[in-house]
Design goal:
Elements lengths: L4 H12 L4 H13 L3 H14 L3 H13 L3 H18 L2 H14 L1
Helix pairs in contact: 1-2, 2-3, 3-4, 4-5, 4-6, 5-6
Length: 104
């Protein structure tokens, strides 16, 4: 797959700010948009390892479910629900809980 112009731009910005969670999230979402789900999962996991960026948990859970990896999706969603609760983000918590319930 050829990288999009947007991917190249984000990667260039990440070279200057490798710990920027928003940029890492944006790059992962670009991969989702291109149908490169396996690469997107890697990007989301790298972001979560860097910091518990709450939106990344839901997104990676959705991608893992789409890839037929329900067990992995459920595990990451549970982690995400804990992170969302700590961050006070009950909306994200509810979305992850709904997805988790649909996978159980």
């Amino acid at each position: 797959m050829a990288k999009t112009r947007r991917m190249l731009q984000i990667e260039a910005m990440l070279a200057d700010s490798p710990d920027d969670a928003f940029l890492r999230y944006g790059l992962a979402m670009e991969y989702v948009g291109q149908g490169e789900d396996a690469i997107a999962v890697e990007q989301f996991r790298a972001l979560i390892a860097l910091e518990p960026y709450v939106p990344a948990f839901l997104q990676v859970g959705q991608v893992l479910a789409k890839l037929g990896k329900a067990g992995e999706a459920m595990a990451i969603l549970r982690q995400g629900m804990t992170a969302a609760q700590k961050a006070g983000d009950m909306h994200a918590h509810g979305e992850m809980q709904g997805l988790l319930e649909s996978l159980e």
